[in-house]
Protein: Aminotransferase class I/II-fold pyridoxal phosphate-dependent enzyme
Organism: Microbacterium aquimaris
Amino acid sequence: MREIPGAWRRTARGAGLMSADGVASPTIFAEMSALAARSGAINLGQGFPDEDGPAEVLEAARQAISDGMNQYPPGRGHPDLLEAVAEHRARFDGVALDPGTEIIATAGATEGLAAALLALIDSPEDEIVVFEPYYDAYAALVALAGARLVTVPLRWPDFQPDLDELAAAVGDRTRVILVNDPHNPTGTVFTREVLQHVVALAERHDAIIVTDEVYEHLVLEGERTVVQTLPGARERTIAISSAGKTFATTGWKIGWATGPADLIDAAMTVKQYLTYVNGGPFQPAIAAGLRLPDSFFHGIADTLRRKRDLLGEGLAAAGFAVSTPAGSYFTVADAAPLGARDADDFCRELPDRAGVVAVPLTAFVTDARRPDYATLVRFAACKREDVIRDAGGRLAAMI
Ligand SMILES: *Cc1c(COP(=O)(O)O)cnc(C)c1O
């Protein structure tokens, strides 16, 4: 039989996502959500909203189904969605895009990330630089693509990277610098200076920048810097976003990738063999969402800011040390003042002790760096205010 070099790396087992005998390792999220379901605890673990998004968007999807838009949309995406993404990025980010060549629709941000990484990685020596803690799919995708993950730590309480550590992580083997901003799980929004360094390093080492901007409209403090607008960035950046977090439609899995035509074509080449297409009637519905007035987008940030404040007050009253996230759904709190030594154990006990589920930050880090995040816990603020208030009360009464 012909040997296929490297093929083993592209199996779940080879990537370390399964044990040697083929058993899938359960994620901490699965374990915590099962705990929540079993114990009836309030789930502040997983980041999905517990309320519907804008009625116009939901209605547009119903209408599209009624109108018979139920077959495969075009491979690059429904033209109306591609147009709407271009308008939206011009309106909010000052980025001019050609909807015919510089945008593709993807099955959520996740497929955009997978397509970009699979398209750009071609050797097991290739290095992908990510900030740590990181969204858990990054490490899995890099492993499945058969490349090396190189991490730059973000430290409590502001979670901005050290610029020397960033520079040290990027070298001539760096294929991609992957930047999630606003950042999950820490809630940080990178300073302009950090992002300028990312661009300078990418230029120096001829790396591609992939951004994950799914929280683009959930900036709660200050302003975010749009990487593609920084000098030198436009021609080497694939920006990935999604409707899920903005419109509270995480189950629809409508995302998009934007960038120069050659990079988008490369991602498209992979994307067409991952899902080919997805979400026929949801694509025009998200187009309608992207065209909502500015007030909608400011409104969702204002609402989340109130929820973040409520969550932070509840956590502080319960005795946690609390960081103030500048963006995203999440707040990180330190359980050390409550006597915790290990956030994994703390989170496993939390449903019984308080009736609340949260996720340890160690779920988002490499083994070597677990000690640096040992007592930090991530709480999701994207829940109804009465739910957050209830959770705060339960935590304050914790036994
Ligand atoms: C939720 C999330 C995603 C996944 O987005 P989908 O559109 O559901 O695929 C990607 N990146 C980050 C940082 C997220 O929080």
